[in-house]
Design goal:
The complex is a heterodimer of chains A (251) and B (429). Chain A is of the alpha/beta class. Chain A contains 12 helices and 6 strands. Chain B has a 3-stranded antiparallel β-sheet with strand order 1-2-3, with helices on one face. In chain B, strands 6-7-8 form a 3-stranded antiparallel β-sheet, with helices on one face. Chain B is built from 14 helices and 13 strands. Helices cover 45% and strands 17% of the residues of chain B.
């Protein structure tokens, strides 16, 4: 039997939800731990330091000079590195600082800003190192996460569709919330993966899986005819760090 | 002079990343620091300029483990601000969703983060090698909590169904039926989990606590209530700042929340239990009595037993709420913005979570302030560590470190939550 592949899970600026997605795989967790050698996963109490890991999973965005160094070190020690979730893939909700003066933000929250070490921007890992695969979602879908891990264990590309939420929504048989109710919905430009959750709950998609492949936000903006600041608020949330959603066209 | 340093850096099995440093000199504790090196994320800053309707989606992202706590504290504050009270059927559905979060968060903590300490395992995977059935059933219990969050909230992490005024869609009774089946199975294990936690070898260590928790007249407080304390406080959400303050301590750059008289206090399961154990369901009260818990538990290590009792209560309560469930119609009340300030709080799994917002007449947020349980408990955790180290100074360094880590985990600190506003000094050793 060949040696089990080693897995490491790393956290940067985030809510912990993406690594929790792994712990939320209740039926698969123990079999996965038998199949893989989970070497480093601090929240789960695993902290074995190795020279190299076969697969590193990265959660969270890069927001401090120390973390910009740390992601490079992790890359150097990882045969494969994948990022999971909106923070690691696009900078997360904290990338809203990219549109503001971080010193202003600092003074709102901190009495003594001089103690806080932070960068002016929140950026994805891919802005610092080469990333082998990016799994979208805030949070990512756990079946997709298992598919990605399984694909890397078997040296194949993950089967993750890059089309829009609309495809999933039609497949689920939902009534279109834009057409039927005039509800603003980012489904036409948002990456699939959630299973068209929000329209199933009678609300518009708010884009928490980020831009789909080749999105057309201009067309959607024209159709929705949203006044400011609603247009900017709708697009600029959890994927504010992505060009398509961070700076949507004005129609 | 004999100087000893005990460090756990980084600290494992907590939510978020932090470290622990204790310095002793001739057996006397000189310094205790629970360090946080999570980078700041500036939620209060970027909430300014957003719409009042966006708070449940945005503040959920402070914490992936307790998003419902953020969602429901934020909507409570906005409804208070706009002079709207959600009717009872909406409140009941919120409580049901919250039960799911208590179950999954507590099950994760009891069996994955804290439990292994008591049996000498480094983690739950190692524990599963010898206690496979227990870990498997714990996972099923956690899964039942997540199933409940999924059916009511749409998904377990960052639910999509919560809005200011109520819900986007009320689940049909038929949608809840399969979850009730799962919960009935979970109930059996939850009873066993209390006995399992009670039988764990536990350090004998009692401390005096100032307990602070929400309390309701007729039920165990989860999604609202008035603030009560063992010192006799009885407050509405708007009165919180009059009685509590945050201040900086010289050895750390973290803000610590204390009572106005300077004392540290405790929020979370031990506090809720001490102030409301008589409001638990009969099944939960019975299990607590069988586990040897009196009306008040002052041993922080025994908080694992109280957490197990709360899991049992949340399962029991969820089943009661499903049995009497009538879908609220409409699923949300209309909330019209008006200029002003509003306050809201709820009981997150790890303690009371307070939100305050100011908005203008268009509903644009002018100011936001959020005080999570971990920042409230931080001063008390450090005090507890001083007491633990003093009482167990004769242990060797490795044993003392484990005992300290176990004590920190007893408070279930969520560093991701606390750090959205904590003064953070990055010190990577």
């Amino acid at each position: 039997m060949s040696a089990r592949k080693t897995l490491a899970v790393w956290k940067f600026a985030s809510c912990d939800g993406c690594q929790l997605t792994l712990l939320d795989c209740e039926d698969e967790l123990l079999p996965l731990a038998a199949e893989l050698d989970i070497a480093y996963f601090l929240e789960a109490g695993l902290a074995r330091v190795e020279d190299t890991y076969d697969l590193s999973i990265v959660e969270g965005s890069i927001t401090t000079p120390e973390d910009a160094t740390r992601i490079r070190e992790i890359r150097a020690r990882s045969a494969r590195l994948i990022t999971i979730g909106a923070c690691a893939v696009a900078g997360g909700i904290q990338a809203l600082r990219n549109f503001a003066d971080v010193d202003d933000f600092m003074s709102v929250v901190y009495a003594s800003p001089e103690y806080v070490s932070t960068l002016a921007t929140s950026t994805p890992a891919s802005a610092h190192v080469q990333v082998d695969f990016e799994l979208q979602g805030c949070p990512p879908d756990k079946r997709q996460l298992l598919e990605v891990i399984s694909a890397f264990l078997n040296d194949r590309r993950p089967a993750i569709a890059a089309h829009s939420v609309c495809v999933e929504c039609k497949r689920a048989g939902n009534v279109c919330v834009i057409v039927a109710h005039g509800t603003p919905c980012l489904g036409p430009v948002t990456h699939a993966g959630c299973g068209a959750l929000c329209p199933g709950y009678h609300r518009g998609c708010y884009g928490c899986f980020g831009p789909a492949e080749a999105p057309n936000p201009r067309s959607l903006v024209r159709h929705l005819e949203l006044p400011e600041p609603e247009r900017e608020r709708l697009f600029r949330t959890f994927y504010a760090g992505s060009p398509a959603f961070g700076s949507p066209p004005d129609g | 002079m004999a100087e000893r340093k005990i460090s756990a850096d980084p600290l494992a099995r907590v939510e978020g990343e932090g470290a622990l440093h204790v310095r002793l000199s001739d057996g006397e504790v000189q310094d205790v620091r629970l360090r946080i090196f999570e980078p700041p994320r500036f939620f209060e800053a970027f909430l300014r300029g957003r719409s009042f309707t966006e708070v449940p989606d945005i503040t959920a992202r402070i914490c992936g483990i307790c998003p419902v706590a953020y969602q429901l504290s934020s909507v409570a504050a906005m409804e208070d601000l706009c002079g709207v009270a959600a009717p009872e059927p909406i409140r009941a559905l919120r409580r049901l969703l919250y039960c799911g979060e208590w179950i999954e968060s507590h099950a994760l903590h009891v069996f994955f983060l804290h439990g292994p300490d008591f049996l000498g395992y480094p983690n739950a995977f190692a524990m599963a090698r010898d206690h496979r059935a227990t870990v498997e059933r714990a996972l099923q219990l956690k899964k039942a909590g997540n199933a409940l969050m999924r059916v009511v909230g749409g998904r377990e992490i960052h639910p999509v169904n919560v809005r200011v005024g109520g819900f986007y869609r009320a689940p049909a009774r038929a949608e809840l039926a399969p979850v009730a089946d799962e919960l009935r199975v979970a109930l059996e294990f939850a009873v066993e989990a209390v006995a399992w936690a009670a039988a764990l070898p536990c350090p004998d260590h009692e401390e005096e606590f100032e307990f602070v928790a929400l309390r309701e007249r007729d039920r165990y407080a989860i999604e609202g209530g008035r603030l009560a304390s063992s010192g006799g406080l009885d407050l509405a959400p708007a009165e919180f700042p009059e009685h509590f303050e945050e201040h900086q301590v010289p050895h750390s750059t973290a803000l610590h929340s204390r009572l106005r008289d300077g004392r540290a206090y405790l929020t979370g399961p031990l506090a809720r239990y001490a102030l409301s154990s008589d409001r638990l369901s009969p099944a939960a009260r019975e299990a607590a009595a069988a586990a040897g818990l009196g009306p008040v538990c002052r041993n922080p290590y025994r908080s694992i037993v109280v957490r197990a009792v709360e899991i049992l209560y949340a399962v029991d309560e969820a089943l009661r709420l499903i049995a009497t469930y009538e879908p609220p119609h409409p699923p949300a009340v209309t909330v019209t913005p008006r200029a002003g300030t509003g306050h809201g709080w709820t009981e997150a799994p790890r303690g009371m979570l307070w939100h305050r917002y100011a908005i203008d007449g268009d509903g644009t947020i002018l100011d936001a302030r959020i005080v999570p349980p971990t920042s409230q408990n931080q001063a008390r955790i450090e005090q507890s560590l001083t007491s633990v180290v003093t009482a167990h100074a004769s242990l060797d360094d490795d044993q003392l470190q484990l005992r300290c880590e176990q004590a920190v985990r007893a408070y279930d600190p969520c560093i991701s939550c606390a750090t959205h506003f904590l003064e953070t000094e990055i010190e990577r050793c």
